[in-house]
Amino acid sequence: MKIKAKVVDQEGLDRILTRISHEILEKNKGSKNLVLIGMRTRGEFLARRLCAKIKAIDNTEIPLGVLDVTLYRDDFRTRIKQPEVSVSDITFDINEKDVIVVDDVLYTGRTVRSALNALMDFGRPSTIQLCILVDRGHRELPIRADYVGKNIPTSLNEEIKVRMTEIDDEDSIYLIEVDNQK
Question: Using one digit for the tens of pLDDT, what is the confidence trace for 68-117?
């Protein structure tokens, strides 16, 4: 792996999350019926930050949950190594709620499809909206985000690496070159 570019720094990430928070409140006419569900791992931290920003803007605490989609992935049984399974943490009712699913990078759309399947085990939301920090393209499924922090088109030998202080000691987004010859 080789770093090609640092696309977003700490201040840039904070600005992106502030903008997305305002977009969420505008589209939903406030925070009244909202719940945020962050996808493990970085989506969880992004959702926590969005909740804090929405509270600062709208003076309302909205429910926050965490979703692990490992067992819902369509490649679960075809992977060579044993996947790490975490626990989803959604302790509130999502029926008839406007659920915003938060993740760091949107690529093929398969992880989001897994999230949609997993959410249905928790109830029937009024709407499900998708909030993505980075959309890198190359979709395999007809999935698009409602809120996008940054569009960063990539080639097939490039990846996006989101780093967050909660687990990486840094807030940044990198464009990485990878060797796909295995």
Answer: 998 876 665 455 455 555 678 999 999 999 999 999 999 999 999 999 99
Of 139, 132, 68, 64, residue with least CA distance to 94: 64
Burial class (CB in 10 A: 0-12, 13-18, 19+), 103: buried
Distances (CA, A) of 157 to 45, 94, 161: 27, 38, 13
What's the gap between Cα 99 and its chain centre? Answer: 13
Report the Cα 122 to chain-centroid distance in Å. Answer: 18
Q: The whole model's pTM is what?
A: 0.92
CA atoms within 13 Å, Cβ hemisphere of 5: 6
Task: Answer yes or no: are the C-beta atoms of 82 and 100 closer than 8 Å.
Answer: no
